[in-house]
Each structure stands twice: as C-alpha cells, then as structure tokens.
From TrEMBL:
The protein's name in its UniProt record: ABC transporter ATP-binding protein
Keywords carried by this UniProt record: ATP-binding, CBS domain, Nucleotide-binding, Repeat, Transport
Residue ranges constituting the CBS domain according to the UniProt record: 328-386
Family statement drawn from the similarity comment of this UniProt entry: Belongs to the ABC transporter superfamily.
Pfam families per UniProt: ABC_tran, CBS
Keyword match ATP-binding: yes
Organism of provenance: Streptomyces daqingensis
Signal peptide boundaries: none
Domain called ABC transporter: residue spans: 2-237
C-alpha cells in the first residue's frame, strides 16, 4: 500500500536524513517507525504526503508513484496526525473535525453529521464538546480531535507522527488503547512514528527500528524484542526486553501443562486414585457444566500419605459419600488461549497462585500455565524467532534441575 523504493533525502545543508530506504507497509497494516530523535522519522513520513520531496528513489501509494499525483489530491487520501495537533484555535471542535469535508465542499449538514459521528468514534460526546474551542480541552481530548479530523474523509492511509507524545503516560495509554480498538474496526494502512519503544511494541503489527536514517530491523514486535538484529537494536529496545516481550507473546496450547482433572461430584477416592496414579500434587476441579471451579490438593484428598486413608478421607459408612466438592478450593482465575504471557504472569501474582487455567474459544478447559511453563514458553518463543521456526519445533535444553 505504501512502498518506499531506495528513497534518500539529503537536505540542502548536506544533512542526509534518510539513506536508501526501502520499506513496504501492507494494506490494513500498522507499522511503527521507532528511533531516537533526529534519526529521520519525520522526514520519512513527510515524504509520503509530499510535504518533503525525496532527493532520489520513489514512493508508491497503492502502486502509483506519488510524484505524479497532485499534492492536494494526494493529501485527501492520507490522514495526517501530528503531535502539536495543529487544531485551528478559533474554530470549534466540530469545525476542526470537519476541516477536510469542508475543503471537499460537503454541505454544512453533512459536515456536522460526519464530524459528530467521528467525535463519537474517538470517545468525545459531540453534544458536550462539539462547540468548544481547542483551548477548552485537555491535551488528551485535543489529540482525540486530531485523530477524528484525520479520519474525516475516510482516507485509506494514516500518517501519525508522535501523535500521543505530548500527553502524560496515563492518558497516552488510554489513547493507545482507544486507537488500537479503532484500528481493529477501521483497518487503515498506518505509518506511525514514535521514539518510544513501548508504544512501538504495543501498537505495531511490525516495527521498523530506525538508526540514523536507516532501518536496522523490520519485524513483528515479538521478534524485535526476542531476536534483535543488531547490537544497536538490542541496545535500543533495552535490557528489559525479555520482560517487554511477555506482553507480545501469546499463550499457545503447547505451553500448557495437563494436571489431572476431576469433577466436583466425583467421589473423593476416585480423585485420590487419579492424583496418586499421576503423582500429582493437585488436580483441577471442574463443575458439572465442565467450567472451572478450582483445585483440589493431594493433601486435602488424602493422596499424600501411605496406603491408609486418613483425615479428610475417613468415611463414615452412614453418611453421604465424600466428594471432591467437600474438599475443593475455589480458584476462578483463568485466561483465554492467545492472551499474552504477561497477563498470565500478572494474574498469578494477583491471585497468589502457582498456576493459571487456560480456556479455549468455547471456554473449555485446555490446561494450565505454571511459572516454569511460562518461562519455557518465553525461551522457546525467543529461540523460535532467532531461528525462524514455530515455537512448537523448539527443543529446549533444560537448565539442570537443582
Ligand atoms: N529542513 C531541514 N534542513 C536540514 N536538516 C534537517 C531539516 N529537517 C530535519 N533535518 C535534519 O534531519 C535529521 C532528521 O530529522 P527528522 O526527520 O526531523 O528526525 P526525527 O523525526 O526522527 O526526530 C536531523 O538531523 C535533523 O536535524
Ligand atoms: Mg520527528
């Protein structure tokens, strides 16, 4: 959709801001361009809407060489959001949002309707905010108006140059979340510039790591974090890249452990026998709808002692038979397959649990993730990325059990 072919930009003073750049952003893809200040990100972006002309090479939009397209016409196909937002201070939020429809000659009624729809889309109530002026909004709200305005004429392409750079971290995270939600329905082709690796990782389908006008690595976030292509990239993504990577590595079936599964209404001796046979210290307990109820420890089931059943398991012949339900503990923490490992980790901490149940799309229990399985999943996925194979194909050398 956006294709750079050997693009170089040399400024008149001799600064080469972009060196021989070749890069392709696929239709509907969100590519983040990340790198330190002064590495050529803005220059790259401005060449796409012809605010800056390349010194050599060419840029194609949907297969068409943009140097042959009238810049004004070109910009109507490209939404542009920048950090300073650039809202017109003397125009209302509705008018600002409708800037492009206005230029396109839409009627006043059409413009208002479209602007209201967009404000709603970015989470601003048009009735409440539509008639305000930009200086009556918070930084985060202004940024939302900037996004709404860029989307007004429904352009297929969005260029975003550090759009959330000026707001505080909490608001930024909100804006990122909202933008991801928006993108999951709009599927724009987006080139998103940031100097913040966290933002790049969170938003990008792929990340282009820039160093001094050149791409050092162009890969999905997990791969950039797990297998940095150069020492520069490793340094840029930071020493805590393993931790960052947890948030972009999904839980897969192969990562899970399969503890014994028992049901609430199973007789306790049957559960005990299962656990003994497996040498398991605990079992997952499901209810009669096969939904997660919690767990049963081997101790509570009396499966730890010798042959003689004791304590909890001693049964009074006259009483109702003891079932799993009598000794199971509640534990309702679970995650869907595909959730990031980081969520599993934080869920374990939150519930002070040594495992977390994982359910499939139909909410059926598939297995559990334990801290050691989580660690393995991370190592496996890093290794898989380094070798360009799938995670399931990786055989781990086990660190000797102490
Ligand atoms: N109009 C210009 N004339 C000369 N040099 C420029 C101009 N604009 C940017 N530069 C230089 O080009 C390099 C890349 O700038 P820029 O694309 O703005 O980087 P970034 O957006 O990554 O911070 C920097 O060294 C900057 O000083
Ligand atoms: Mg810049």
């Amino acid at each position: 959709m956006i294709r750079f072919e050997n693009v170089t930009k040399r400024y008149p003073d001799g600064t080469t801001a972009v060196h021989d750049l070749s890069l392709e952003v696929a239709e509907g893809e969100l590519v983040t361009l990340v790198g330190p200040s002064g590495c050529g990100k803005t220059t790259t972006m401005k060449m796409v809407n012809r605010l800056i002309e390349p010194s050599s090479g060419r840029i194609l939009l949907d297969g068409e060489d943009i140097s042959a397209v009238d810049p004004v016409e070109l910009r109507r196909r490209i939404g542009y959001v920048i950090q300073q937002v650039g809202l017109f201070p003397h125009k209302t939020v509705l008018e600002n949002t409708a800037t492009v429809p206005y230029l396109l000659g839409w009627s006043k009624a059409e413009r208002r309707e479209r602007a209201a729809e967009l404000l709603q889309l970015v989470g601003l109530d048009p009735a409440r905010y539509g008639d305000r002026y930009p200086d009556q909004l918070s930084g985060g709200q202004r940024q939302r108006v900037g996004v709404a305005r860029a989307l007004a004429a429904d352009p297929p392409v969005l260029l975003m140059d550090e759009p959330f750079g000026a707001v505080d971290p909490v608001v930024r995270e909100h804006l990122q979340t909202e933008f991801l939600k928006l993108q999951s329905t709009l599927h724009k082709t987006v080139l998103f510039v940031t100097h913040d690796i966290e933002e790049a990782v969170r938003l990008g389908d792929r990340i282009a790591v820039y160093g001094d006008g050149r791409i050092e690595q162009f890969d999905p976030p997990a791969k950039v974090l797990g297998a940095p292509a150069t020492p520069y990239v490793a340094d840029f993504v930071g020493a805590d890249r393993g931790l960052k990577r947890l948030s972009v590595t999904p839980i897969e079936r192969g990562d899970l452990e399969a503890p014994p599964v028992v049901h609430l209404d199973d007789p306790l001796d049957k559960a005990r026998a299962r656990m003994r046979a497996d040498g398991a210290r605990w079992a997952v307990v499901l209810d009669d709808a096969d939904e997660l109820h919690g767990w049963l420890s081997a101790e509570a089931a009396g499966a730890t002692g010798g042959d003689g059943a004791e304590g909890a398991t001693a049964q009074d012949e006259t009483a109702a038979p003891v079932t799993v339900a009598d000794h199971a503990r509640r534990m309702e923490a679970w995650l869907p397959l595909g959730a990031p490992l980081k969520q599993a980790f934080s869920s374990m901490l939150q519930h002070d649990a040594g495992w977390i149940a994982v359910l499939d799309e139909a909410d059926r229990f598939v297995g559990v993730l334990t801290p050691s399985r989580l660690h393995e999943a991370l190592r496996r996925s890093i290794d898989a990325d380094e070798r360009d194979v799938s995670r399931g194909e990786v055989e781990l050398e086990t660190v000797a059990d102490a």
